[in-house]
Amino acid sequence: MDTLVERGVRVRIFDMVLPTFRSDVEFYQGSLLDLEALQMAIGDVDVIYHLAAVADVKDVYEQPHYSESINVRGTINVLEAVRQRRSRRVRVVYGSTTWVYGDTPADVVDEDSALGAPSHLYTATKIASEYYCQAYSKLYEVPVTILRYGIPYGPRSRDGGVVPIFVRRALNGEPLTLAGDGSQFRQFVYVEDLAEGNVMALQPVAENKVYNLDGRECITIKQIAETVGKLVADVKIEYTAARPGDFSGKRVSSALAERELGWRPKVPFEEGVGRYLDWFRARAARNETEWARVHDSLKSEAGS
Ligand SMILES: NC(=O)c1ccc[n+]([C@@H]2O[C@H](COP(=O)([O-])OP(=O)(O)OC[C@H]3O[C@@H](n4cnc5c(N)ncnc54)[C@H](O)[C@@H]3O)[C@@H](O)[C@H]2O)c1
């Protein structure tokens, strides 16, 4: 959103929840499950970034039925709202995930890799949504672009990710715990690089295409702990038994996005973690000031 606003694009958000980080964009409150509300919100837009979802795999595991409604029916509603607005050509950019490769046997995957039958419900909902996008594109000529995001990190990250968890523990002087020998790797993509990729995907070449948008470096869990140790505090790293079936890692190629869109992630992992840390500290300082203000005003109310 920031990247679009900076470029002078008028942004409208449709969500059930008020945006927390910006108040200078248009906001329509509603649910994806309400087709009429969605149609109203679409109004005169040229592009929809369809990102709304139950995006935390743990939530999907705990609420499969609800998650399916948001992640799959929600996507059809977006596509259907666009199909019904025949007078306007609206591009749908769908935020998918590199998790769709989770059941592909190859160690290195790209957009041509065949997807295996999904073992996780989250992946099942994302693959189903991708298929609906493709079917709407073929049957009704709704222009779509599917972007498979890697694991984003950086300022405003959700607290449950591995980087935020390690940073909090290190700031508290607690040890960082690794399952197994910590050699499992993941690719991480810095949030602003990912945002840039989303904007680049608006180019005409990206119509009716699928792109991976993932980081270039493979970072092991041990490297994350070491980076956090270096930037925050030199806390102990503890090893626990490996988790059975823990996914050791798969290399996702984003070469197509580089070739066709000119997208290449720029921010190295250590720098991105540093930027997250700066944001985290600034937020903590702001919260402290706010608490002190509330405390003072309650005290003076009690005294009066
Ligand atoms: N975060 C990741 O690690 C990651 C990785 C790859 C892909 N993705 C995909 O990117 C997208 C965004 O992920 P995120 O991490 O920013 O998720 P998020 O949970 O931060 O944001 C999802 C948003 O969807 C909204 N939403 C949920 N149900 C809704 C409904 N019925 N109607 C309207 N809005 C609704 C929520 O209020 C929330 O603001 C998702 O589609 C996710 O699957 C995320």
List key phrases describing it.
four-stranded parallel beta sheet, alpha/beta, three-stranded mixed beta sheet, 13 strands, single chain, binds nicotinamide-adenine-dinucleotide, 10 helices, 304 residues, UDP-galactose 4-epimerase, domain 1
Walk me through this protein's architecture.
The chain has 304 residues and is of the alpha/beta class. The protein has a domain of 96 residues: UDP-galactose 4-epimerase, domain 1, CATH 3.90.25.10. Helices cover 44% and strands 18% of the residues. The chain has ten helices and 13 strands. The strands form five sheets. A four-stranded parallel beta sheet has the order 3-4-6-10, sandwiched between helices. α4 packs parallel to α5 and α6 packs parallel to α8. The longest helix has 35 residues. The radius of gyration is 21 Å and the shape is globular.
Gist of the model:
The protein is 44% helix and 18% strand. It is α/β, with parallel strands linked by helices and 304 residues long.
**How does CATH name the architecture of the domain at 154-188 and 216-276?**
Alpha-Beta Complex
Low-confidence stretches: none
| Small-molecule components bound | nicotinamide-adenine-dinucleotide
What is the CATH class of the domain at 154-188 and 216-276?
Alpha Beta
Tally the beta strands: 13
Q: Over all CA atoms, what is the radius of gyration?
A: 21 Å
Within the largest sheet, what's the order of strands?
Answer: 3-4-6-10
Dominant shape: globular
Measure the end-to-end span. 45 Å
Number of helices: 10
